[in-house]
Amino acid sequence: MPQPKQPTAEEIEAARDRHRAAAADANLGPAARRHHEHAACGYDWALRALGTSSAIQHLGYARAYAEQAAQHAPATTRLTLTLPAAFCRWADENGRTPQHFTGDETADRLRLALQNGTKHQIDASTWTLTIPGHDPVAMQQLTALADEFADHCHPDNHPTSIEVRASITLSNALKNLAERHLAAK
After folding, report:
1. pLDDT < 70: residue spans in the chain
2. Residue 76 CA: distances (Å) to CA of 73, 80, 150, 153
3. Looking at residue 173, what DSSP letter applies?
4. Cα dihedral: 51, 34, 28, 73 (round 10)
5. CB 78 within 8 A of CB 72
6. Single pTM value for the model
């Protein structure tokens, strides 16, 4: 995969300054301001690391938070998605979830959505992860992963009953989220 084009120092400074200004905007809610603060920090780190390989990772971090700020919705309209533990384990064990910011927009936005999730312990061995569902790029990537998981849960692959239930639950949750996205437009 080709590396993204590195922006100039002036472009990074302009983005950082825009996000710093937005973070200070009293008209925004605390979560939106926090996303802008993170984006500004990421651009600042990228500026300091300009010309090195870590600059791309810092830009990925900054861009992912910038997208979160742009997509931020008030709590009354926030969309979430609950991921079953079996899916999360499968994705982690098979290296399907990004572990670091890479500069790849799709992967970075998915990583941020997963990172911003809340784990809910149901009992001693069962849990779910509720993630923000308002980022269409992250949800599209997640849908592709859910399709891979559904293929993994095909009877020829001898899945566990928990994996089969998780696949059905996740497919239904993604369908419902897509319908809510369409209804909100």
Report:
1. 1-5, 73-78, 184-185
2. 8, 12, 32, 35
3. H
4. 100
5. no
6. 0.64
